[in-house]
Amino acid sequence: MAQTKPAFEEKAAPKRGAIREFAGYYKPHLGMFTLDMCCALVISLVDILFPVFTRRVLYDYIPNQLMRTFVLMAALMLVMFLIRTAAQWLVTYLGHVMGVHIEADMRADIFAHMQKLGFSFYDKNRTGLLMSRVTTDLFEITELAHHGPEDLFISFVTLTGAFIVLWNIQVKLALVLMVSVPLIVIFVAMRRRRMMRVSREVKQRTAGINAEIESSISGIRVAKAFGNEREEIAKFTECTDRYVAARSGYYKVMADFHSGTELLMNLMSLSVICAGSYLIMKEQMDIATLVTFNMYVASVQSPIRKLTQFTEQFTQGMAGFQRFRAIMHEEPDIVDSPNAKPLENVQGEIEFRDVTFTYDKEKEYVLENVNLHIRPGEMLALVGPSGGGKSTLCQLIPRFYEVTKGSVTIDGQDVRDVKLADLRGSIGIVQQDVFLFAGTILDNIRYGRPDATMDEVIEAAKQAEIHDDIMRMPNGYDTLVGERGIMLSGGQKQRVSIARIFLKNPRVLILDEATSALDTVTERRIQAAFDRLAKGRTTLVIAHRLSTIKNADEIIVIGEHGILERGTHRELVALGGVYAGLAHSASLTE
């Protein structure tokens, strides 16, 4: 099964500035971050001081029988270890809390940004892939945000402090460590890039699995209707196999990385033992110094291991962050212009002036040189074959898509020159495929105006002829509708959507084949609700059933590229053209 590549990955986010962007998310949590770093400093200092204390015990306290001093110093070290334990607790708790907050901030930002992206973005990208950007891609961010700066800081302080102490103890042996550590760091840096590449591939495969799950669950009824459960399982298995292969590749790279790092650290310990033994045999150093050095080798290895852990966290976290940035750098194609004006006291006069539109500049036009004028309060009906551009024409009014050429105006103002919130707030849309959120009936009706009172919700439901049905349900307005309203009938879902528009009370109404999927009795009932809804509003109706638009003020027949015929029902029947043929088929020739 071919993998479709998300459109936004074709134009990836700029590589530069990723670290700066990531660091910007620490700003709101600077207090926790500062405390975390202070605790990390305490941990590092204690780790540096313990070998120094051990050396003093071996050199001074034991040979000179300084029991009192030894006890005092041991007690001091005990206090320091208790302080270190408290610091470690704060680092573990507050650090992870800070990481979760940063992850949540990123998730909120990407969700808010996705709300700004236009229809064209969602036309090109699968829901499951986008869900991965908001969820799984950011899971490792918590660990990176917490451990990343902390591990780097502890490693830097510990290594620097250890080298300073060791340089003052034995220069020659210190040089052995100073040569070994950079070699390990270079090895880690070289492997990091390869791990990043493989980690990105794992993220892509995970997103593919999420997309398959989302698609299969959404279409489970279709799969069962066709008896294609095995085919769905096969598709998912193939996707999972690709994920396993990618994950296995990542673990292979990770195994090379960890085993190589451990080998280099073991060689560093061996080098210290060999060099120290040589210096002892040459009487240039004593055994106590070698013991101290070995303790510092352990102290040096701990931050090196932290660096290797950081590398793994960084590759996984930044792979997710880069995919996060890919969407965050996706520019919304439809936004308010710098000089956008408020749209007030809407009358509902709409005009299309030489409008031409295409979804893709490289493809042919869907609409071409369309001119229309709809007066306030009029009903305009659009008929024609599927794919002729009727829905597209209506979607240009609320700027779901931008016109390619020409202009669309509302009350004489170009829709591109008014505030989007005002424009869309003045337009109500009812579609054939009604979408209800998985909440209660009350939640879905109130979606039309979230601040509406209960009395207003009930009045809107009565206008839509759904109130009585709701009151017969077990929990009334608190009845759950299920995913996409699956617990309601088609007619009930449609009337809930109509109630939501009544509550919104827009000046412009768009009915996009809103009754074509309903039976005749239900359609007649809902049509009565539409008639009340359309009263006094500028209304555009897309319909296949001509009986619902017979009394429209004007009917437009849209064909390939544009308008074929226009006029009232009687005029178009008399014309004997395309509409007359449709009316004859529907027995509406009078």
Brief sketch in words of this structure:
It is built from 20 helices and ten strands. With 590 residues, the chain is of the alpha/beta class. The strands form two sheets. A six-stranded mixed sheet has the order 6-7-8-3-9-10.
Show the helix and strand layout.
Blueprint: H1 7-10, H2 18-24, H3 30-61, H4 67-116, H5 119-124, H6 127-134, H7 141-169, H8 171-218, H9 220-225, H10 229-281, H11 287-328, E1 350-357, E2 367-374, E3 379-383, H12 390-395, E4 405-410, E5 413-414, H13 420-425, E6 427-431, H14 441-446, H15 454-463, H16 467-471, H17 490-504, E7 508-512, H18 520-534, E8 538-542, E9 554-559, E10 562-567, H19 569-575, H20 578-585
Parallel strand pairs: 3-8, 3-9, 6-7, 7-8
Antiparallel strand pairs: 1-2, 1-4, 4-5, 9-10
Helix pairs in contact: 3-4, 3-7, 3-11, 4-7, 6-8, 7-8, 7-11, 8-10, 8-11, 10-11, 15-17, 17-18, 19-20
Question: What percentage of amino acids are in beta strands?
Answer: 5-15%
Strand runs, count:
10
Termini Cα gap:
54 Å
What letter string, H or E per element, gives the SSE order? HHHHHHHHHHHEEEHEEHEHHHHEHEEEHH
| Structural class computed from helices and strand pairing | alpha/beta
Number of helices: 20
State the helicity in percent bands.
Answer: 55-70%
Major beta-sheet overview: 6 strands, mixed
Radius of gyration: 35 Å
Low-confidence stretches: 1-11
Biggest sheet: strands side by side, in what order? Answer: 6-7-8-3-9-10
Let me know the average pLDDT: 80
Shape: elongated
